[in-house]
Amino acid sequence: MSAIATKLFGQRALRWREALTGYVFISPFLVGFLWFTAIPMAIALYLSFTKYRIIKPPEWVGLRNFVRLAQDERIRVALFNTFFYAGISVPLYLVTAFVASLAMNLKIRGIRWYRTIFYLPSVTPAVASAMLWLWIFNPQWGLANQAVKLFGIRPQDWFMDPQLAKPCLIFMGLWGVGPTMIIFLAGLQGVPESLYEAAMIDGAGSWGRFWNVTVPIISPVIFFNLIMGIMGSFQVFTTAFIITTGGGGGARSYGAGGVLDCLLFYVLYIWQQGFSFHRMGYACAMGWLLLTIILVLTVIQFRLQERWVYYEAERRL
Fold it and tell me: Which residue range forms the structural domain that includes residue 21?
């Protein structure tokens, strides 16, 4: 019995040692997650039930901030602008990145240089990129109006036009498709050549191979980019903030949100409430509403993925 007990004790000690080693290796992530994510989220949840003016201690107000969310007219404007932006920019962004990745997957001379050129804009600082586009869309002397004149179209106000401001911002987003293009490219290069050869033997043409081999195999990559794109589109802030409050030629004279709040996105409104009006408790409540919206949309996407996402390993099992 003592030998059996000693063996069991040794196995248990080994498991504890392995578990302790694992926790030591992941401790940087755990500490970072607790300190920079979990604890701030808990504090924000508490502050969402308070009246907090930053310079004064928080004052508990219960559900007053959430009731105000339902009554705030600008919340509806910000949500509409954000949903409009996400609904158009995400599909357009994914299609553009996918087409670019197909082109960058071609085996032609100098393809590495082309990949670098397509990826380079995505590493441009956001402020520099926004200022560049403000110059391009300047109503007086921007390149955009010079271009439309060639087609007999009168000069436009671009960001100062409520009907054109959001489309211009969506078009700006296509400037940074580089990271998504690289992820698509990695997925394309992981498609087995044997599947293309089998499809060719079966008589499939270029379109048939693309639709029946390429798309199903990289559908997990498409799903990942879709989820990340939706999350990113609901957190658009930097470009809208710079355009509405930054350089000349934009909508800065109308304050954060642009002309008639046409560029008042949800995160921009959170910043405005928290750091311009010093309503940090209300801003925290808005942040939790945003988290709920993104969470619901993500859960819906995970529910729907079973209908179109192909996981090769699962099919083999």
Answer: 2-47
Q: Is the domain of 24 the same as that of 92? A: no
Phi, psi of 59 (to 5 degrees): -120, 120
Q: For 64-100, what is each residue's pLDDT tens digit?
A: 999 999 999 999 999 999 999 999 999 999 999 999 9
CB-based contacts of 161: which residues, under 8 Å, 6+ apart?
259
Q: 6: helix, coil or strand?
A: helix
Written as one string, the DSSP assignment of 81-115 is: HHHHHHHHHHHHHHHHHHHHHHHHTS--TTHHHHH
User: Of the candidates 192, 243, 226, 206, which has an alpha carbon nearest to the alpha carbon of residue 304?
Assistant: 226
What is this structure's pTM?
0.86
* Enclosing H/E stretch for 242: helix 238-245
CB 62 within 8 A of CB 48: no
Both 264 and 196 in one domain: the answer is yes
